[in-house]
Specification:
The chain is mostly helical. About 50% of the residues lie in helices and about 5% in strands. The strands form five sheets. Strands 3-5-6 form a three-stranded antiparallel sheet. Strands 1-2 form a two-stranded antiparallel sheet. Strands 4-7 form a two-stranded antiparallel sheet. It is elongated, with a radius of gyration of 55 Å.
Amino acid sequence: MGGAETSDAIYIATERIVPLDLNDRNEELVRWGLFRIAEALRFVNEDCKLVHANVCKDAVFVTDAGEWRLGGLELMDAVGAERPVYREMGSVVPGYAGRMAPEIKVQGVQGTAALDGWGLAELISECYTTEMPLGLGALHAQLRNNNPKLRMAAHGFVEAAQRSGGVLDTAFVRACRFLESVTVKDSHERAEFFAGLGAAAAEFPRMFAQRKMLPELLTLVEFGGADNGHSAVLASVVQIARDMDETEYSTVVAPAVVRLFASTDRALRFALLEHATALLHGMHDDVVVASVYPAFATGFGDAAPAIREATVKAALSMAPRVGSKTLNSDLIKHLVRAVADAEPGIRTNSLICIGKLCAKNGPGVTDTSLRYIVCPALLHALRDVFPPVRAAALAVSGACAMRWDAVDVARRVVPAISPLLVDGERPVRVAAAKAIHVMVAHIEGHAREMPETVAKKMDKVGAQAEAVADLATNGWGGWAVSSLSSTISGAISLASSVSQSGARSESAGVRSEPAGVRSEPSGIRSEPSGLSEPPQVSQRPSTTINSPTAVSTSISSNAAVSQSAGGWEFNDDWGEDAADAWGIDDNDDDSWNAQPNTSGGMTAVANTPVKLAKPAAITPVIKPVVKPVTKKDTNPVQPRRKGLGAMKLGGGAKSNPVDQFL
């Protein structure tokens, strides 16, 4: 593991170990331990050219995973040393005299690897005090030979014990050996091994599998040693890790799973999504939301259809772990987008996933998400060209019907499903009939809870209607009369301004008759003879008190009002009840009994109701532009007219009464 050297000592740091205890042992672990000790002795003898010389139970230590480690290096010395340590200091080690090799007692005999073969036989004797497994007794006898030249060495024991049917030829030992050398195996061997590892892992010692094999498998998957066998390796990981407690799982497995989900290898991502349920079961929800879900959600938009489909299927495993907030704000939206995927299989699976999440006992999908996110997607899927998609949408609609508002079901969902009752595909028709049956039952249950009649509510509505009518009479009606009065007053004011403008034109001495074609305003007809004076228009003040505005106008007798013109008309089109409709009483106001105007005009009388019509639009009259006469002109001439008045169609200019208004 590590070490440090000072002026006084050398410190070696190892993994956490405990002395070997054979009272609580597992047979497979013992065999694997003997293999590990024999391999360690081979390394010491052949590679390091050293002799351990003290192999026994007291020199063996065990890790947390149950794996054996060789210790007791106090008597180690080089092969062929003249004065070896084990010969000089052997008496210091407790019990060493009873288990040391015979040649150590003979002076002048150099130590060889056969010394450690004798020690290995001593360790086997301590492990199997009563009866040895089949095949181990013969090997033990060869290791215990008194002749060093005929004694079996540690590497010979390993080779003989691994032969077919040997003591070390077990599934557990073979699996452990394969994992240690997996990097040098070819892809075919790795695929074959991982294919059968999942089933065999159930028989392995639990502690060893979880603390030794599991980290090696995760490392193998993370760094690409599994080739295309990621799914098989992860299946073995799931098999081994299923019995781990939450604390140990979060320490050993969870960090590796987070790193694996961040990988861009599609084969690995697909395998992770296949085993997402088992891999996420021991992880904290906070870790899943913060570290796993962001990488998981990218699968919905992956370019590979297989990854998108696997992500949709894995959403059922992810939904309970991310919480209601993430589920309703993000995950359900990804699934709804998948309903419009280009692949029909993905659309179908996404609908099935939505149905399972949104069922009556679904994990956390709110009614708001169901109504505003899921329902539109289902209605869209009902028109899909792929029949299984329509059938899935109908199945989901039936499953969610009891959570929908009965009014929405009756008004939105049932009309959309009804055409599918006569769909061309029989599975779709059957699914539509089932969905309609569920929804009709839901609607009927809601209808039974409704009141028998809404008459009481209609009485309240009638009272409100009377209040509105009263408001219309007192408020809106008065506003309408006032608006009409304002319109009439504005029109009369316009006529008055036109009259004043004509008077100013005459006082200035400017001729207002156009020389050519005349333009007449709509509703006013000129007499054949010229007008000596412009029509005089006067306006009487009007008063409005919850009654029509009283208007009195005087129009000069020189101007004639045509009933057939498009301007103001005083005819009988409004009917005889016009005064009553306006709320006019014949004797309401004495001001309506005015006498005829002495100026030859016309004044409204109360006994003759005035009937008003909508005023026509007044055609604007363009005022001629007059070029002023400068002082340099000796012979002043008439100013040149512009516009239509300057055109001559033959003959002299006729007098236009409208020009006198300008």
